[in-house]
């Protein structure tokens, strides 16, 4: 069986075309590949577009118990990049509704103008094998949700000289944590 080589792009339907376009340009540091007012394509790396936005006039938001996509995640190269983005967005009034060390990742969750969940993250393991091993560990089995973090504190510690590898590493909290402990806002 042949598997894909990468995830190419996502496309979002909206009734807030300009707001959504501007939000993704700002949050991802993206550029416009194409925009005719009805559809736009945005890029932030070597792909011609990673985000598509279609102006459908859609206004209804699915509820927490409906089927659909939960969130889309974007990986940063290092903790400094993730925390610089956090600080830049915070100055623009865009704040995460949940910040968590899941174990394999250190993650900040945001909501776009349509309420879609967007995860900005950094991998906590340099090697895929180590992340896979952690995900099979007892610590992860007992606590697959992770531990809440404070990004402003991490940023301060990073700027004070703590090594990124010490700040972005798998949690060791083996206390049981289930979905009932996830902030309620995650399910809206």
Automatic annotation (TrEMBL):
It holds the Pfam family Glyoxalase. Keywords: Aromatic hydrocarbons catabolism, Dioxygenase, Iron, Metal-binding, Oxidoreductase. PROSITE patterns: EXTRADIOL_DIOXYGENAS (PS00082). Gene3D superfamilies: 2,3-Dihydroxybiphenyl 1,2-Dioxygenase, domain 1. InterPro entries: Glyas_Bleomycin-R_OHBP_Dase (IPR029068), Glyas_Fos-R_dOase_dom (IPR004360), Xdiol_ring_cleave_dOase_1/2 (IPR000486). It comes from the Bacteria. Residues 6-120 form the Glyoxalase/fosfomycin resistance/dioxygenase domain. Its cofactor is Fe(2+). Belongs to the extradiol ring-cleavage dioxygenase family. This is Biphenyl 2,3-dioxygenase.
